[in-house]
Amino acid sequence: MRPVPWLGVLGSLLIAVAVAVAVTAPWIAPAKPTQLDLRARLAPPAWVDGGKSNHLLGTDNVGRDVLSRVIWGSRISLTVGTAAALLGMLLGSTLGLLAGYFRGGVDAVISWLINVQLAFPFTLLAIFLLGTVGGGFAAVVVVLALATWVNYARIVRGQVLAIRERDYVLAARAVGVPTGRTLLRYILPNTAAPIVVVASFSTAQAILTQAALSFLGVGIDPSVPSWGAMLDEGRNYLQSAWWIAVFPGLAIALTVLGVNLLGDWLRDWLDPKSAA
Amino acid sequence: MSAPLLAMTNLQVRFGALHAVRGVSLAVGAGESLGIVGESGSGKSATMLSVMGLHDRRAAWVGADQLSVGGMDVLSAGEDQLRALRGGQVGMVFQDPLSALNPLFTAGFQIAEVLRRHRDLDRRQAREGAVALLAQVGVPDPKRRAGQYPHQFSGGMRQRVMIATALAGEPKLLIADEPTTALDVTVQAEIVRLIQDIQERSRLGLVWVTHDLALLARIADRVMVLYAGQVVEQAPAAELYARPRHPYTVGLLSTVARLDQPRGQRARAIPGQPPRLDLPIVGCAFAPRCPLRFERCLEAPPLIETGPDAAAACWRVETPA
User: Fold this and answer.
1) Which residue of A has its CA nearest to B79?
2) Out of A175, A186, A190, closest to residue B165 by CB
3) A-chain residues near B117 (CB < 8 A)
4) How many CB pairs under 8 A join A and B?
5) Is residue A240 part of a domain?
6) Residue A81 is assigned to a structural domain of this protein
7) Is residue A241 in a domain?
8) Which of chain A's residues have a Cβ under 8 Å away from the Cβ of B103?
9) Mind listing the pLDDT tens digit for each residue in A210-237?
10) pLDDT for B104-119, tens place per residue?
11) How much is the pTM?
């Protein structure tokens, strides 16, 4: 009997809550995220002196409800994070697979790309790209995928280098299985475990980076509530109205923690050597 | 003899500086079985991979005066022709079935894969064909077993699955690369008998590669001994065991442990090491380890005929010690 993986359960719970909140945002949010309540500007959370009961987590400098904005902001963070991690997976796994299997020139080019990507300060690249092509959901996802594909490519390449030497790959070729099918049915499935683990960590990375980009004012349209943009808005009021920045910050921290805990547990669970 | 299934003349395989196969020639016809014996690094596996064009073209250089399977020139064949050859004309059984079967797919799926590729069957026919093949290689309860994964089979059963995949394309030539080395001794005999049965029933050409000379006595019509990538002796099996001509073959035969030798007698080994394959070999490759060497061994001996269909690469054939 394995011990109950409490941290994995906690991670799954955190993610489940975040997803549930994102899905049900229109119904559970007490107010519209863009609705102004100018008479209640900078109201503190309800349990603090001067707090209002209709603004549980307080309001920001133009009187928007912080709780509602945190709830709506989860949508952007989760969708962008997941989409970027998946796109990065597609791109990175494909390139890693090609590099590991064909080696030689293909590998040299792809490995070179990986190293260039790793050597280049990503935030700078993201600001430059989003600054030139403009922001928007799709653009941010693509730019974040550019940040995460390297993780997949390196892991998959290494795995494939090992797996292509296995006898069953030779055996597949010895019964006449063509190269493409060998790659897809014999090699790729055997790299699935590390890909899943990288995917979880990459999602966390993408959520963080997306928040950072919003904080820097590039990326998602600032009128759409997102945790990163809220941090940016709250920055000027940290001394007087800490709640504007602290609650979205907490939301980011808990979500990323959840994804990381889940990823950690997945890594142990999928590693046959760690099986108790 | 009709045109041989497998005809190879002067095969050379190099991995960079490493000259692994140095002029091997052989021929196998339908219903014939050839045993190839040699120690690790003697070039036996490299020779067999060449037959199917399975060497990585960037890592290995393969050349031969002739290398044809079923009349098709392997060296000039395109990738499509090679794919039809692999599994279709030639089936291959590997040493360790656990690592040679894909751990993620069922036994039935892996056999069906070959059936669909080489026999043009649809999905359902292929699944039925896979069950029939499992039954044919002696897997009990084949219908249920077809749905199981390689790790759910015992070593012997797994090797039967491997043999079923090798036979699925109805090959004319079967290459068995140490198919019993990874198995328990009791299971070895069953697998040997299975392969022999299949070979006799379908009149397959069989090439059995091994380092176990004793095993070949039961299987092979003819035996070829490889040393350092060269053929040092070849003869009909009975002849080779009765009258080995090359000192290396003599040495190999004397290393075979026998029950009838006195207790306490230490196992014999051939002293010394095989030569380095990344350097040119001057004279006879075996000379440094040979008890019978003399001046003439500084010159490389050709294969000298020693009888009908028998030859040894040793000057002592002409000049007995």
Assistant:
1) A178
2) A175
3) 175-177
4) 65
5) no
6) yes
7) no
8) 168, 190
9) 888 888 888 787 778 888 888 888 888 8
10) 899 999 999 999 888 8
11) 0.78
